[in-house]
Amino acid sequence: VLYEKYSTRIIRSAYLLTGDYQLSEDIMQETFVKCFLHCRELKDNSRFEVWLMQIMHRTAWKLISRRKAEVPEEEIENQTEKSEENDCFSSALRDEQSTRINAAMAKMCGKYREVLILYYYDELSVREIARATGCFEGTVKSRLYKARTLIRSQLQSHEEKEVMFHAGSENIG
Known about the structure:
Layout (H helix, E strand, L loop, with lengths): L1 H17 L2 H18 L9 H20 L5 H7 L8 H20 L2 H12 L4 H8 L3 H36 L1
Helix pairs in contact: 1-2, 1-3, 2-3, 3-7, 5-8, 6-8, 7-8
């Protein structure tokens, strides 16, 4: 029952951390094995979800450091969700923005990418992220702030390049 409830979320988070589907499956499998072996150590069942995510993130970082994996930009771009709306223009803009955000995330340090994934994709609170990562809440908040700043600057720099490109092409014609 727990596997059915949490497997999709764990594999998605693991994939967003690693960029490697096979490694994500390994992380998910090890996470559930550790969960099964250590479930009696959990004292408060209401904290199961945070505890499970903590196991997943520790397992992921252990396997990542073992394999020295980096997140391939192309795989993250392929992972972006497609809009189901019929408005092609809005859908194209959203897809482009999502691609740029994912590319910016792929370039950032793992500790910043991790808090973004936990906060926005896994919808954990700052307190839950702190428990899952073993950091202080203030550290999580500062990493979230820094990660948002990095993405914002990447997006602004991309927009500035586009404006310069379009201004240059108008002068040519």
